[in-house]
Write a structure and sequence with these properties.
- The complex is a heterodimer of chains A (about 200) and B (about 250).
- Chain A is an alpha/beta fold.
- Chain A has one domain: Class I glutamine amidotransferase (GATase) domain (Rossmann fold, 3-Layer(aba) Sandwich), CATH 3.40.50.880.
- Chain A has five helices and 13 strands.
- In chain A, strands 2-1-3-4-13-12-11-8 form an eight-stranded mixed β-sheet. A three-stranded mixed β-sheet of chain A has the order 5-6-10, with no helix packed on it. Chain A has a two-stranded antiparallel ribbon with strand order 7-9.
- The two termini of chain A are about 15 Å apart.
- Chain B has one domain: Aldolase class I (TIM Barrel, Alpha-Beta Barrel).
- Chain B is built from ten helices and twelve strands.
- Chain B has helices at about 30-40, 65-70, 85-95, 105-110, 110-120, 155-165, 185-195, 210-215, 225-230, 235-245; strands spanning about 5-15, 15-20, 25-30, 45-50, 75-80, 100, 125-135, 140-145, 150-155, 170-175, 200, 220-225.
- Chain B has an eight-stranded parallel barrel, surrounded by seven helices.
- The relative contact order of chain B is 0.15.
- Residues about 20-30 of chain B have low confidence and may be disordered.
- Chains A and B meet through helix 1, strand 7, strand 9 and helix 5 of A and helix 2, helix 3 and helix 5 of B.
């Protein structure tokens, strides 16, 4: 059973249908009490930092997510869901989940590149994680974001992408995985990524 | 490296994809889900689904249609047409749309852009601008499917929607739309110089060279294609191969 956290805004439909495609049962979670019962958790990424964090804090899901992560449950944060794993974000004032050391910041405009970073970009695989099983180095994934995490411990960066600067597009810390791209929107390699996650 | 996107646009009326020349003389082309799946498999980088009848006939975009399209594809998907308020947007996003495109209502109520960007994030708010050329190298914003002039300058409006929190601009040249005579490169260039958010070029693609030109010289982040693709004059694969050979970064599938 996969628990998908729904914080009230945006499209979780795509993540849901993708997970169900691989025969997994899904529970949509918007209040505490259910996270214990699922085998793995997905925090999808739509919305902006403060309303998302505020939702987790106000509902009490904040503490529960941290507890489940500490117990070793597999956790996947997508896009904003990845950014929420860090300590703070330039996008808002709320604290993050503080599961991974680092801060989220905005793309600088000085490179003359449009912001948001929007579209298909390649991911260079920099670690040995099984999350990238059968996915070739340099494969394209779909991104739609203006902020990116600066990860303190570079060993946790398992995927890198270039957009004016090189940034961490995939991080892993033990049972926690965060991706800046949207695997559920990234064609066949995105589907493979989700499939790999469901096997971890 | 970030690739340039090729985005088929599905203009939809009563559940069918239609072709529009100058937004009039609609002609039936085919089933929307069939097109969506076909283009996704062909290597489309995104899809745009515009219910072109929605604004004129005050009809809301059908949510179950959105759902069935979203269930059949694993690429991003924008929905537009007849969006009036934040709850219309919420319904579309909940049913599988990744982004929404607002046009007429953004002009009538610019605050909607700000409110939606705040609630759902800028990345899912596309503001569509229909531009008609005037004299002196200026363009005017038109609304209601290109029927009503607003008196607003396109460049100023583009800057304003960026400031309000739009994540992207979908820029259509009404003069070029459906003509197959090429994009309005001047218009694209002026708008991309003015804003920092990505701009999608729309209206006028009739050849591979037209697509190259608007990406290379107009600085578009993406191109929207309808007529040229729907009647299979050119395939997405051909477009991408052509661009790849000319050193434009594209995602080849």
């Amino acid at each position: 059973m996969v628990g998908i956290i729904h914080y009230g805004a945006g499209n979780i439909f795509s993540v849901l249908t993708t997970v169900e495609r691989y025969g997994e049962k899904v529970t949509i979670i918007s209040k505490p009490g259910l996270l214990k019962k699922v085998d793995r958790i997905i925090l999808p990424g739509v919305g902006s930092f403060d309303p998302g964090m505020k939702f987790l804090i106000d509902t009490g899901l904040y503490e529960e997510i941290k507890d489940e992560i500490k117990k070793g449950k597999m956790f996947l944060g997508i896009c904003l869901g990845m950014q929420m794993l860090f300590e703070s974000s330039e996008e808002g004032k709320q604290k993050g989940l503080e599961c991974i050391e680092g801060k989220v910041q905005r793309f600088p405009n000085q490179h003359g590149l449009p912001v948001p970073h929007m579209g298909w970009n390649s991911v260079n695989i920099t670690g040995n994680s099984e999350i990238f099983n059968n996915i070739p180095d340099g494969s394209f994934f779909y991104f739609a974001h203006s902020f990116y995490p600066v990860v303190k411990n570079k060993k946790m960066v398992i995927g890198q992408t270039e957009y004016g600067i090189k940034f961490a597009s995939c991080v892993q810390k033990d049972n926690i995985i965060g991706v800046q791209f949207h695997p559920e929107k990234s064609g066949k390699y995105g589907l493979l990524f989700i499939q790999n996650y469901l096997k971890l | 490296m970030l690739t340039k996107r090729i985005i088929p646009c599905l203009d939809v009326k009563d559940g069918k994809v239609v072709k529009g020349i100058h937004f009039e003389n609609l002609r039936e082309a085919g089933e929307v889900v069939t097109y969506a799946k076909y283009y996704s498999d062909e290597g489309a980088d995104e899809l745009v689904f515009l219910d072109i009848s929605a604004t004129l006939e005050k009809r809301k975009t059908v949510k179950h249609l959105v759902k069935s399209v979203a269930s059949n594809i694993s690429i991003p998907f924008t929905v537009g047409g007849g969006i009036k308020n934040i709850s219309d947007i919420q319904i579309l996003l909940e049913n599988g749309a990744d982004k929404v495109s607002i046009n007429t209502q953004a002009v009538k109520n610019p605050r909607l852009i700000h409110d939606c960007a705040k609630k759902f994030g800028s990345q899912c708010i596309v503001v569509a601008i229909d531009a008609k050329k005037k004299e002196n190298n200026k363009w005017e914003v038109y609304i209601e499917s290109g029927k009503s002039p607003t008196g607003m300058d396109v460049l100023e409006w583009a800057k304003k929607v960026e400031d309000l929190g739009a994540g992207e601009i979908l820029l259509t040249s009404i003069d070029a739309d459906g003509t197959l005579a090429g994009y309005d490169i001047d218009l694209m260039k002026k708008v991309t110089e003015r804003v920092k958010i990505p701009v999608i070029a729309s209206g006028g693609a009739g050849s591979l060279q037209h697509i190259y030109d608007v990406l290379a010289y107009g600085n578009a982040s993406a191109v929207l294609c309808a007529t040229i693709l729907h009647f299979k004059q050119i395939t997405i694969r051909q477009i991408k191969q052509f661009l790849f050979d000319k050193k434009i970064p594209v995602r080849i599938v």
